[in-house]
Amino acid sequence: MHAYRTHNCAALTKANVGDTVRLSGWVHKKRDHGGVLFVDLRDHYGLTQIVADEDSEALALLDGLKLESVVTIDGVVKARSEGTVNANLPTGEIEVFARSATVQSRAEELPLPVAGEQDYPEDIRLKYRFVDLRRETMHANIMLRSQVISSLRRRMQDQGFTEFQTPILAASSPEGARDYIVPSRLHPGQFYALPQAPQMFKQLLMVAGFDRYFQIAPCFRDEDLRADRSPEFYQLDFEMSFVTQEDVFQALEPVLAGVFDEFSGGKTVTSSGEFPRIPYAESMLKYGTDKPDLRNPIEISDVGAHFEKSGFGLFEKIVGSGGTVRAIPAPGTNEKSRKFFDEMNDWARKEGFAGLGYVTRKSGEFGGPIAKNHGTEGMQAIYDELGLGENDGLFFAAGKTKDAAKLAGAARTRVGETLELIEQGCFKFCWIVDFPMFEYDEDTKKVDFSHNPFSMPQGEMEALETKDPLDILAWQYDIVCNGYELSSGAIRNHRPDIMYKAFEIAGYDKATVDREFSGMIEAFKLGAPPHGGSAPGIDRIVMLLADEPNIREVIAFPLNQKAQDLMMGAPSAVSNRQLRDVHIRTVEPPKPEGNADKSA
């Protein structure tokens, strides 16, 4: 017999009744029924009920163990009585009568419970993550992650993509987020950077003549954390040669639709070939964001033209000075009290906006200061244009275009959630396309790149030479699901002449481009194919599929919100010898004056 087990804790069924077996696992739960002890034994695969009574030499040993101790049980499989069958367990028709037990490891008092799904402080959960991972939901999330990655890999290979690995120690890039840097021992005063993405390397693989690349790539960005962001994350990174934007879409849609359909648990998924393509400008107008949640039926409208000559002076002034007014419908709010609308206005102020105007409507009667000043006829014209009914309310976000869009987008989400309009049980995908190549930076007072500077401009060199830079669009796209951006991508600018011109418009001279992006620009001078790709975030994909609100719930060993590993104690100080080895010294930040040492 095997030293530890003949079966796992999910394997035994009624067909095994009478068999002598050996099981090993953790003591998950114990129930003492007066001389009869029931133990739920748990391993990676599931649970088996163990029974020990006064005829079993295992009784005293099992009775004295704390939960989460690891034991090996030798016993006989018996059928449960009809009234005690647990239909929710694969092993629910049997139990194992323990003849003997061996303790492999005794557990001390637990820092957090394993059985059950109680909420527990995150700092405790992350400090004792190896215990937290024993809990059913966490264990299932990490297994789901593994299965999703396997499915992604298989689907990419089935489409002819080849898996490559790219360097982890790379050069720092002047573009993008803040790098994690690594000092070099062999080259004093010089540093590597952990890759924010394998962007340069995957493009160079295309230049090298490989046609379809992918990898499950680790990426690192030293940026502030939030619920859907981690400093260390993984993405399905891929690149393709001799492709248009449409070719990229046709390659990625069946992969994402297929994976979501496979693991959706019965939720509906946008079918491959049916992902809506929404231009960036339209998305910002209709949804107030470039990552819209299409489960929300509310659409925003620009109603500024209605207030060019209005009795409502505030909106008239905003529109007259180049601003805009965005309208956010609140359908079926005739039974809502004034408090609902006032609370929305208070919420907007707490979010840092000047406020959120509104109009109420009950049985056709308009209410509120805006309606009073703009007039019934004017309000009816707005309602007719928007297709609103006599029991629908309306919110207004007014100001500079960018500010009004941001407030309107946030208000659309809040109204949809508050009124329970968000469609449940579905994953709705869309592409956001036609991003602007350039934007005007109000702080620097100059034109700069809007998103990815290495995207191919639509119209290529002709557009750069003849168009207003702010009118030039890029072959750049995002894939969005249920309000989460899963990835950005682009058809790359593979021509040095177009790249020099694009950077010139953004204020970079040729020497700067040659210095900062030498590897890429020199490669493109030696024959580069048209190419493009994308990189969906695996952590966010699993977060959506697991229906978790926080990305840390689908990462085995995540950092906390301060980018700390509470379990292993990272980041940590290192010895002076280690610092000398890499030729650096640390400078402690100055302490706040209130914490100064007063003993001197």
Describe the structure concisely for a colleague.
The protein has 600 residues and is of the alpha+beta class. It contains 18 helices and 24 strands.
Strand content: 15-25%
- Count of DSSP H/I helices: 18
Average pLDDT, all residues: 94
Q: Given the helix and strand composition, which structural class is it?
A: alpha+beta
Q: Estimate the helix proportion, in percent.
A: 25-40%
Distance between the termini: 72 Å
Low-confidence stretches: none
Tally the beta strands. Answer: 24
Report the biggest beta sheet as strand number plus sense, adding barrel if it closes.
Answer: 8 strands, mixed
Overall geometry:
globular
Radius of gyration: 30 Å
Strand order of the main beta sheet, please?
Answer: 6-9-10-24-23-22-19-12
Salient structural properties:
alpha+beta, single chain, 600 residues, 5-stranded mixed barrel
Topology:
Elements: E1 20-32, E2 37-42, E3 47-52, H1 58-63, E4 70-79, E5 94-105, H2 122-127, H3 129-132, H4 136-158, E6 162-163, E7 181-183, E8 191-193, H5 199-207, E9 212-220, E10 232-241, H6 245-263, E11 268-269, E12 277-279, H7 280-287, E13 301-302, H8 313-320, E14 324-330, H9 338-350, E15 357-362, E16 365-367, H10 369-374, H11 376-386, E17 393-399, H12 401-418, E18 426-427, E19 429-433, E20 438-441, E21 446-449, H13 460-466, E22 476-481, E23 484-491, H14 496-505, H15 510-516, H16 518-524, E24 531-534, H17 538-545, H18 576-581
Parallel strand pairs: 3-5, 6-9, 11-18, 12-19
Antiparallel strand pairs: 1-2, 1-4, 2-3, 4-5, 7-8, 9-10, 10-24, 13-14, 14-17, 15-16, 15-17, 19-22, 20-21, 22-23, 23-24
Helix pairs in contact: 4-6, 4-17, 5-16, 7-12, 13-14
